[in-house]
Design goal:
Layout (H helix, E strand, L loop, with lengths): L7 H8 L16 H4 L17 H16 L3 H13 L4 H10 L2 H8 L5 H9 L3 E3 L2 E2 L12 E4 L7 H9 L9 E4 L4 E4 L5 H4 L5 H8 L2
Helix pairs in contact: 3-10, 4-5, 5-10, 6-7
C-alpha cells in the first residue's frame, strides 16, 4: 500500500497543528512546528487568502487522516462504517480510528508514534489474544489483550518508548502492565477520552454533501 514518505513535520505545518507524528521530538525544542509554525513552501509564511467552508472541512479531514496515517480510500471506508453505526457519526469515526492496532500500540506506550506502532505491528512484534497479528488496521474490541511477543520483549524502541510514555495523559479505557508488556481494552473511548483537538462534525459535513 502507498504511504507518505516525505518529512512528517511538513504535515503538521501544513495543517497548522501539532499532530505528534515524530514521537519524542514533538516534545522538544527541535520540533519543526514550534520553530516554523507557518505552512511549508517558499510563500508559506505569508498571509494566505480566506479559506472557503469547503476548504475548512477538507483541512479538518486531512488533519485527522494524517494523524492516524490513513489513506483516503481507507478513511472513506471508516466514515461509511461509522455512519451505519448507532450514535454520533463523528464520534463513531474517531472511535474506529482509535481501535486500530497501530494506534493502540502507540496509546499503550509501546511505540513513540503511530507510525512506529505501525512498523512494530507489521514486523510481527505484537499479539492479540495470544495470536500473532501483523495488520496495523486490525480493529481491537473490548476485552482484547495486546501483548508484545516473547521474542520481542527486549526491543529498545519499546522500552525507550515506555520511559517517555509519562508525557502522555493516562487513558482510563486502557490498562497497561509494564512488567508483562501487555495491555487490555477495558472499554471503548468516549469523545473526551480521545482528547484530540478535532472538529469531526466538519468531516461529517464534508462527506454528507
Amino acid at each position: 500500500m502507498a504511504r507518505y514518505r516525505a518529512a512528517n513535520c511538513r504535515l503538521c505545518r501544513r495543517e497548522g497543528a501539532k499532530l505528534f507524528l515524530k514521537g519524542r521530538r514533538c516534545f522538544t525544542d527541535k520540533c519543526a512546528f514550534e520553530k516554523r509554525g507557518y505552512a511549508p513552501g517558499q510563500h508559506g509564511h505569508f498571509v494566505r487568502r480566506k479559506i472557503s467552508n469547503y476548504g475548512i472541512q477538507l483541512r479538518e479531514k486531512q488533519k485527522v487522516r494524517r494523524t492516524y496515517g490513513v489513506l483516503e480510500r481507507q478513511f472513506r471506508g471508516y466514515f461509511e462504517k461509522a455512519a451505519r453505526e448507532k450514535g454520533i457519526t463523528g464520534e463513531n469515526l474517531l472511535q474506529l480510528l482509535e481501535r486500530r492496532l497501530d494506534n493502540i500500540v502507540y496509546r499503550l506506550g509501546f511505540a513513540p508514534s503511530r507510525k512506529a506502532g505501525r512498523q512494530l505491528v507489521s514486523n510481527g512484534h505484537l499479539m492479540v489474544n495470544g495470536r500473532n497479528v501483523d495488520i496495523p488496521s486490525y480493529l481491537v474490541k473490548v476485552g482484547d489483550l495486546i501483548q508484545v511477543r516473547e521474542g520481542s520483549r527486549n526491543l529498545a524502541v519499546i522500552h525507550d518508548s515506555l520511559k517517555d510514555a509519562g508525557r502522555r495523559p493516562e487513558l482510563s479505557w486502557l490498562r497497561l502492565d509494564k512488567v508483562k508488556l501487555q495491555g487490555e481494552i477495558l472499554q471503548l473511548p468516549s469523545r473526551e477520552e480521545i482528547g484530540m483537538p478535532f472538529e469531526e462534525q466538519l468531516i461529517v459535513a464534508l462527506y454528507s454533501k
